[in-house]
Design goal:
Two copies of one chain form a homodimer. By secondary structure, chain A is α/β, with parallel strands linked by helices. Chain A has helices at 14-25, 37-47, 56-62, 75-82, 114-122, 137-140, 157-169, 183-199, and strands at residues 6-9, 30-34, 52-55, 65-68, 90-93, 127-130, 149-154, 173-176, 206-210.
Amino acid sequence: MSLPTIAIIGGTGNLGSAIGWRLARAGYAITLGSRLAENAQTKATALGHGMTGASNAEAAAAGEIVIVAVPFSAQTATYAEIKPHVAGKIVVDTTVPLVPPKVMRVQLPPEGSAAALAAAALGDGVRMTSAFHNVAAHKLAQDIAIDCDILVFGDEKDARAEVVALADAIGLRGVHAGALVNSAAAEAMTSLLIFINKTYQVDGAGIAITGKLVPIS
Amino acid sequence: MSLPTIAIIGGTGNLGSAIGWRLARAGYAITLGSRLAENAQTKATALGHGMTGASNAEAAAAGEIVIVAVPFSAQTATYAEIKPHVAGKIVVDTTVPLVPPKVMRVQLPPEGSAAALAAAALGDGVRMTSAFHNVAAHKLAQDIAIDCDILVFGDEKDARAEVVALADAIGLRGVHAGALVNSAAAEAMTSLLIFINKTYQVDGAGIAITGKLVPIS
């Protein structure tokens, strides 16, 4: 079975470019998206591994799975930009609702989570998931082992499984973590990790689920 | 320095009795509280290690640190019961806002967290913290090693540090995780852990913070 093609919206950012780079090295065809296609093309060329660059809308149209990696403040505008191009596709929201300057405080939106906002922005007909909230982007961007689980949320098990496979493919452990509403837990956890990084001088704390997990089919 | 005396409100429940038992074995003087003093006395006698039992109000009055381990549905009534007896004390809320029957879904209260509800119930003049959300009670009740970090929340660092010390004393790792508002992350995580237990056949999944944490003074 051939690998799905992947679009990374916000693909010039720290998280998006690192996920794209790791997926490209794992053999996936990657289109990085950015507000300006030229910036995405420059980034794609710099990172290599056959990646291409395009506008966010073009990238969304090209990808079979669409990963959205933009700051919380850009989330609404970004989803408006890609909405016409993602019908029927798996969309992976990675947004963490950090509200500067108090990024070490949990500040979930009234809607419950950034994932809920993403789902509302796209409406029905999209296979909405969320993931990649807790991994440090600067670690992902290096060719190193990372001890961090990727909690994957979504109301549809098969869509979650495809995102779990992406996490596994880039050397992390994807873990099914339930319905999209549960994304709040991982999104909130990021503020704690920033606090812990500062308090305990950690270079990119992450989280791991402990206990013996029996792989699911 | 002598160890603080500890009250466990809801001390006949699975989580409360297990925390009490582990703390008693670590040398702390423990008073288990329950709605009915007699039930608490019976439990204390059964668990041994010099524990005593009392009504929740009496236990709260006796403890220098007051740990509250009751179901979400009993939280409001319990705090009303102990409020007259906890002024100036460290109170450790362990409440997880699970709303049956959908306990695998994150359902945080409109106030943001159970810890926020506890703080509102007690008002000013209490050193409010929260912790022990993610550890499996049935594991705590056994004399076994447990791989689970205890995230400790509170607006006052010194109060948090005393709760971190309690977690360390019972063989877990206490971790400062920031302001009380951040409790939402650990409370929400419990629903995920229940989902993961079911999905991956885990006997009590927990969480661990990854990365190298430098101990703080």
